[in-house]
From TrEMBL:
A Pfam short name: DUF498
Organism: Pseudorhizobium flavum
Domain of life according to the entry: Bacteria
CDD domains in the cross-refs: Mth938-like (cd00248)
Name of the protein in its database record: Mth938-like domain-containing protein
Amino acid sequence: MPKGIEIRDAHFPGRAPIDAYGNGGFRFADMSHRGSLLCLPSGIHGWEFEEGQPLTSEALARVLEEAADIEVLLVGTGRELRPLPQQLKSALKARGIASDPMSTGAAVRTYNVMLSESRAVAAALIAV
């Protein structure tokens, strides 16, 4: 019989606006999460990604898996805007997803507006 704390993948099974960000994490749906997030049609998922790591198709594999339900992917690239690599932009475009990189703060604000408009939006938010 296992002992101790069971660590599970962080997942909120719904769509919710992001209430706050900073100090290395986010607040949403009366919860807080330390680290980066993927906000997808299937819910809000913890994302093992840190500012400065290369953005690749592998890093966003879960986004690509849910591509049928996503029209726009907002990528919060951290404190500053970082352009997306061409290979990643091409992989997203091939699945019908428009990508828009911006600072994490701008991505949070844009995501909340698009979510309130019931748009088919997803966000990859790097913790700041």
